[in-house]
Amino acid sequence: MAWRKSPPELIALFDAAIPTDARVERRKMFGYPAAFTNGHLFAGLHQESLILRLDESDCAKLCEAGKAGPFEPMAGRRMRNYVALAPAVLADRKVLGRMIARALAHTAALPPKGPKRPSRTKRNTN
What we know:
CATH class: Alpha Beta
Radius of gyration: 16 Å
Strand content: 15-25%
Number of helices: 4
Number of strands: 6
CATH superfamily: YgaC/TfoX-N like chaperone
Order of helices and strands: HEEEEHEEHH
Number of domains: 1
Structural class: alpha+beta
CATH topology: Yope Regulator, Chain: A
């Protein structure tokens, strides 16, 4: 399955909206710009969507208000605690900034991710 690239305008919006904060690490995930804290993704782009990680209550409230929808990178594969923001939210930089700050605060409160486990493909063949 080939994913579409994020539009340049959305990439520019994402870059401008992510705060300059010592807890924030910018990197790419699956070729898309993303922002992490403590090893956890809190904001990123996927095709034409800006996604955020929030607690279940905030996700439900945003979806009910029409400000976001569930994030499904593949049809039927919903990522729990992630939402894709509605275009109206992206158009309001103040609201977008508050939502990104909320996602950062929520995700920064999670325990840091531990080191990756060694790959199973690297086995001793002796």
